[in-house]
Amino acid sequence: MGKTLAEIAQQLDAKKKVQLIYAFNGTGKTRLSREFKQWIAAKEEGDDAPSSELADKKMLYYSAFTEDLFYWDNDLGQDAEPKLKIQANSFTKWVLEEQGQDQSITTTFQRYTSEKLTPHFSADFSSVSFSFERGNNQQEPHIKISKGEESNFIWSVFNALLEQVIAELNIAEAADRSTDVFNNLTYVFVDDPVSSLDENHLIELAVNLAGLIKSSQSDLKFIITTHSPLFYNVLFNEFNNKACYMLERFEDGSFALTEKPGDSNKSFSYHLHLLQTIEQAIADSKVERFHFTLLRNLYEKTASFLGYSKWSELLPDNRQLYLNRIIQFTSHSTLSNEAVAQPTPAESATVKLLLDHLKNSHGFWQQQGG
Questions:
Q1: Do 27 and 150 belong to one domain?
Q2: Torsion from C-alpha of 285, 290, 292, 297, nearest 10 degrees
């Protein structure tokens, strides 16, 4: 029988330094982060501070940071100077005004977007505008950045804050710290910071985040949720002291948080990455010869995962037909002029048929629809 998200939130109040959670989109990982925030808040006694204050808080929460602290002032009357407004709060006041991290934020933001896309903070750090530097002494000022770029910017602010928090808490004696506002901080919950990143930047963000977390010498604990198999897999490989889970939602609205031990995380992530790669090629009508190789690899990995001795046992009933077609397109020819990258429409349809068969016929894939 499944659990409520509130019950699963309590399950996360654990001893591990890092907890990684994979969940398909729409499963409930963001709702879980909110339930966990409420659970931690309920354990606090006599907390009458406003929700925007850091003092006495036990949890730093990336999603709430995104939703609560930033909003667009579009200058609707003139439609001329859109600004991203920053709510007055102790988070940004400390990291921007007291710690002067605006340049660090700009550097991180440009790393994940473009070195020509430049944020400009107002003198009182109450807003930020953006310009695009063309490199020829020309500037496109006052642009409204995309939703993905906005997410990257807010992550860059959070990243700068997290760097400073970890550095402060690494000072063992509380009396020696520059601020006491983080002394009661226990958890950092990062909910899916990878929107709109290509694979190279996604890997870079995962490695940088892992390095930052590994630099933490205090008792601070980290929970990271994601829908990205690649992001999950990079983080899995980066950490030693970790617990790994998959969040599932059932038809009755209940949930399960299943721990995934050891190397099952590697095959799990690789399966999902292959699946997404082939699905994207089908959706874009860009199936090529190498996608047959990926499909065969996916069948082989899934057969091994499910305990079949031969991957061909997973094929549809007319196995020999499909087996011959896949082998034909995954053979290693020594003559480059024999290899044709683009399959025929019928051959591309074979890829879709075999992928659909694998997803629909074996329970390992069924949770993706949740």
A1: yes
A2: -130
Residue 25 lies in a domain: yes
The closest alpha carbon to 150, from 53, 211, 84, 82, belongs to: 84
Which residues, listed in sequence order, are joined to residue 20 by a DSSP beta bridge? Answer: 224, 244
- CATH at residue 52: 3.40.50.300
Measured between alpha carbons, how far apart are the two ends of the chain, in Å?
17
Whole-structure pTM value: 0.72
Dihedral (CA of 13, 19, 23, 29) sign: positive
Query: Which of 206, 237, 261 corresponds to the end of one domain?
Result: 261
Q: Which domain holds residue 155?
A: 5-71+146-261
- 29 and 62 part of one domain: yes
Beta carbons of 165 and 186 less than 8 angstroms apart = no
DSSP labels, 276-289: HHHHHHHHTT---H
Task: Name the domain count of the chain.
Answer: 2
* pLDDT tens digit at each of 370 positions of the chain: 689 999 999 999 877 899 999 887 788 888 998 899 888 888 765 445 444 455 567 888 888 567 678 888 866 556 568 899 998 777 888 899 989 999 999 999 999 999 999 999 999 999 999 999 876 666 788 898 988 899 899 999 999 999 999 999 999 999 999 888 888 899 999 998 877 788 778 889 999 999 999 999 999 999 999 988 778 888 988 998 899 998 888 888 899 998 887 766 766 666 777 788 889 889 998 888 788 888 888 888 777 766 678 888 888 888 777 887 777 676 544 333 444 557 788 888 888 988 888 888 764 444 343 3
